[in-house]
Amino acid sequence: MTTTATKLDERTIEIVKSTAPVLAQHGESITKRFYEMMFANHPELLNVFNHANQKQGKQPRALANTVYAAAQHIDNLEAILPVVKQIAHKHRSLEIKADQYPIVGKHLLLAIKDVLGDAATDEIIDAWGKAYGVIADVFIQVEREMYEAAAKKNGGWNGFREFLVQKKVKESDVITSFYLKAKDGEAISDFLPGQYVSVRCPISGEKYTHIRQYSLSAAPGKDHYRISVKREADDYSPDGIVSNYLHSQVKEGDVIEVTAPAGDFVLNMDSDERVVLISGGVGLTPMVSMLHSLVESQPDRNVRFIHAAINGQTHAMHDEVKHIAARHDNAAYYVCYEKPTEKDRAERRFDKEGYIDLAWLQSILKDNSGDFYFCGPSPFMKAINKALTDWNVPAEKIHFEFFGPADQL
Predict the structure, then answer these.
(1) What does 242-287 look like in DSSP terms, one character per residue?
(2) Is a pLDDT exceeding 80 seen at residue 82?
């Protein structure tokens, strides 16, 4: 990447950086129009993109933020390499290919012109076209390396691979786990705790296939994968169509298609510092994988697992995590229920009623040392991030993962 920016002349860089604030101001309008135009001309791409994220505006917003960030650093793209890699992991998992980038570039420029009108002069459009080419080259290069790495791993592969649903386990009223074993009986690639796979579902009655990404919820090093899926909304809304399909229609013995593990929200196994895992709802899935890995691979490393759920009926894997904490002296487990049931109270299933807050974190953790990992719904994540920031936890010790396009905390 060190020579990438030299492909752009100073005038192009000047135009892109000076017009970036204007595009940021109209960013969501531009990206929304971009998706409308691109899907109209290339409906086959609807087999790749998450329809729910489109409908909810998450994808246009995420793309707008990415474009603006890239424009701001067009003369130093190394500065956004961590963001590039995070997005590239998702692209590799979705099987995004290099030949799709020109399609995206063409329609992004058309959308800029369509939204800004005469303000988008030929010189501005030309400059942004050149800039997009440079940015796309960076993504293509990073993703090419990721595809090669995924294929070269022992048991690795590219594309979608068929897996048998070996076992299906109901974890709570809303979450079910699927144990997946390669249909061909061959080895499967290892993964890092916190990573995810993409699942492709050809749903009856749907014109396009649907792809969703699910965190791996068991420890690495097994002969199978486990994903734990929350049933979202209902069958008829875009954000619930895949989870309802998996819950209601996929049975043990069925075949589903999966890409190799990906993702950069991973546990740092090179440290011996305390680890604090904080999850809300189905956000516990990558945390459970991290917990298993910690007690198996680093049995002397202190780990605290803190989970928030509505109540015991929606709380998945409680017994599993409780059993791990009971068997390992280095692990402790705490539960917070927003609205506990009478059964929860009778069985003493939780440690706090309401929400996780800084005062409670300070009471159970004593100090702010170690690495903090958290995942859950956006409001939950914003609250946890604020609590840790208010506690003066260093930014480099705070790690989080969004399910879906990245948002702002």
Answers:
(1) HHHHHHHT--TT-EEEEPPPB-S----TT--S-EEEEEEGGGHHHH
(2) yes
